[in-house]
Structures are given as structure tokens and as C-alpha cells.
Write a structure and sequence with these properties.
This protein has 339 residues and is of the alpha+beta class. The protein has 2 domains: 152 residues, no CATH class; 89 residues, Arc Repressor Mutant, subunit A. It has a 4-stranded antiparallel beta sheet with strand order 1-2-4-3. Strands 5-6 form a two-stranded antiparallel sheet. β1 and β2 form a beta hairpin. The longest helix has 89 residues. The protein is rod-shaped, with a radius of gyration of 58 Å. It holds the Pfam family Bro-N. Keywords: DNA-binding.
Length: 339
């Protein structure tokens, strides 16, 4: 037979069962397929093993598929002068198996979904052994027109397996869709909750800011009240002193003798204290305050600065004088404690 006749006969040869349906019935999935010009089909071994549950594809091929039913993709395509197809992760070193190798892997699979297909394969073998051949029933309605392919009815076991697998996939699709809808609803609820939390946080921040403003205003009021109370206390001290010094209200100034006499009654005056009193009393009466450094008083009394300081503390303790801060040069300032 010449070459044109071979090509014409190859083109006119049709498969009794669509190979896609055949593979789907065997594996429960639509795996990648490479069809050669002579009508042979090759399938990526990794795809078939994955769908059939073989975790170790190398071991599965070594155990169940003979070498003549498995090849490297570059070897298969090179035999027909074809190049490796582009895309979909087709690689030159990709290991592929024939349709017979696929059937052998299915027969070695333990997945329940493969049981109907394996039963049909067993039926085919039994029929061929008993009758010498196996024939598919022709479809009742043939497609019209010359050259139209002949349609055949699919074996009942394979058809039922395909229907069950399709129903199973539909259920999985529905469950996936339900899960996605539930997930979207949860995401919407989470987003709404986050928005509510953001609004609450903003309201809390505004409340905190308002509270801070109130606290600042309250602090300012308190500070103003403290300053006012300090002024009132100063004025009260002044009034008390004026009340204790009626001679001042009458326009009379106390004399040095009167001051010294008053101090002698207030405390037991020692010689040191009396020496200090004699020096500071005229100054307090005349100037109203004492701004002499301790050293200056010490030089006038012949006492040490330390002793002068003790005498002044004793006069303060017995309400003879009182302190009124310090001078610019650091010397203490004293005034009469009138009462």
C-alpha cells in the first residue's frame, strides 16, 4: 500500500470510544493528552499517578507499567519529526505512558472510583476469551451525511462510572461554591466588625481628647485658685501682723528698748543671745528689716558666724523675729515678729 493510501486510511479510522471519555471513566479526571499522527495517545505519567492516588510515580511506573508502554516526551515526538508542544508544563524530559500503560495503572489503583472501569475491563477480557471478540453496540441514530463518523454506545459500566463521577464532581463544585459563599459572608461580617471597631476607637479617642481638654481646664482653674489662695494668705498674714501691732495702726513705731524688753520676757537671754539682740534690734526698729550677713554680726559681737546663726535661730524659735527670704547677696532677711 502506497503512502497516500496509508494516510487516507489513517484519517478515515475513528475510535470506537472517545479517548477523553475513556480516560475520564478510568481516572475520574481530564488529564493532559498528546495524540500522535498515527492515532496513538500518550499521557503525562505524573498526571495519571496524581489522579489515581499513586504518591510515588516512579515506583508506580516501575511496578505496573512495562518499559515499552512508557517513554520520554522528546523521544515520542522526535519519532514523528515533531517538536515538544509549548505551554502547560510540557518538558523534554517529561515521562509519558501509552493508553495501555494508563489501563495498567488503573488496574493497580485501589481507589473505589476505579472499580467500575476495572470490572468493565475484566468483562471485555472474559468476552474475548469466550467469544473471540468484543463488539460495542452501535447507536440507534447514526449521524447523517457521507463520511460522518460512526457512533457507538458506551458500555453500561463505563457510562455509569462517568455519570457517578460527574455527579460527584458537581457535588464537589456545589460544596466549593457554598464554602466560598460562606467565606465571603464571613469576610463581610469581619469587615463590618472592623469598621465598627474603628468607629468605636475614633469615638473613644474623641472622648479622651475631650477629657484631656477638661482636665487641662480644671488644672488651670486649680492653679488660679492656688495663686489666689496664696495672695489671700499673704494678705491674711499682713492683717494678723497689723492686728498684733496696734502701735503701728496708731502710727507709733516701737522703740529699741521696748523690743529688747519684749525679747527678754520671751526667753532666757544668755550673754551670746543678748549680744546678738543688742546689734540687730536697732536695725530692725529703724529699717524694718535685717539684711546683715552673719559675718558682719559676728564681727560686731565677737562671736563666730556659727554661733550667731544659732542665736538667730533661737530668736526665731521664740517668735522674736521671723525670716522673710534672702537678699541678693545671699544674706538672710529678718523682720520683727510682732504680736
Amino acid at each position: 500500500m502506497n503512502e497516500p493510501s496509508k494516510r487516507r486510511n489513517s484519517a478515515e479510522r475513528y475510535e470506537a470510544i472517545d479517548v477523553s471519555d475513556f480516560v475520564y471513566a478510568a481516572t475520574g479526571a481530564r488529564v493532559r493528552r498528546l495524540t500522535m499522527p498515527d492515532g496513538t495517545h500518550w499521557f503525562p505519567a505524573v498526571d495519571v499517578c496524581k489522579e489515581l492516588g499513586h504518591t510515588n510515580s516512579r515506583k508506580a511506573l516501575a511496578d505496573h507499567v512495562p518499559e515499552e508502554q512508557r517513554e520520554i516526551l522528546e523521544t515520542v515526538t522526535g519519532g514523528y519529526g515533531l517538536s515538544v508542544p509549548a505551554g502547560r508544563e510540557w518538558r523534554r524530559d517529561l515521562q509519558v505512558i501509552s493508553l495501555q500503560g494508563l489501563v495498567l495503572l488503573v488496574n493497580a489503583c485501589t481507589k473505589p472510583a476505579c472499580a467500575p472501569f476495572k470490572q468493565w475491563v475484566a468483562e471485555v477480557i472474559e468476552t474475548v476469551q469466550r467469544e473471540g471478540s468484543y463488539t460495542l453496540d452501535e447507536a440507534e441514530v447514526q449521524p447523517p451525511g457521507p463520511g460522518a463518523p460512526v457512533a457507538y454506545a458506551m458500555p453500561e459500566q463505563v457510562a455509569e462510572a462517568i455519570v457517578r463521577l460527574e455527579a460527584h464532581n458537581l457535588r464537589l463544585d456545589e460544596e466549593l461554591a457554598d464554602g466560598q459563599r460562606t467565606s465571603i459572608a464571613l469576610q463581610k461580617e469581619t469587615l463590618a466588625t472592623q469598621r465598627e471597631m474603628l468607629v468605636t476607637q475614633r469615638e473613644t479617642l474623641a472622648t479622651q481628647q475631650a477629657t484631656l481638654a477638661v482636665q487641662q481646664a480644671t488644672l488651670a482653674v486649680h492653679q488660679a485658685m492656688v495663686r489666689a489662695l496664696e495672695r489671700i494668705a499673704d494678705r491674711f498674714d499682713t492683717l494678723v501682723l497689723e492686728r498684733r501691732a496696734p502701735e503701728v495702726l496708731l502710727g507709733e513705731r516701737p522703740t529699741t528698748e521696748a523690743v529688747l524688753a519684749d525679747w527678754r520676757q520671751r526667753l532666757s537671754v544668755t550673754q551670746d543671745v543678748w549680744a546678738v539682740a543688742v546689734v540687730i534690734a536697732p536695725v530692725l526698729v529703724e529699717k524694718g528689716e535685717l539684711r546683715l550677713p552673719l559675718e558682719s554680726i559676728a564681727s560686731r559681737t565677737g562671736l563666730s558666724a556659727h554661733r550667731v546663726n544659732k542665736c538667730l535661730r533661737l530668736l526665731r524659735k521664740h517668735a522674736c523675729i521671723r525670716s522673710r527670704g534672702g537678699a541678693e547677696d545671699g544674706a538672710p532677711v529678718y523682720v520683727l515678729h510682732r504680736g
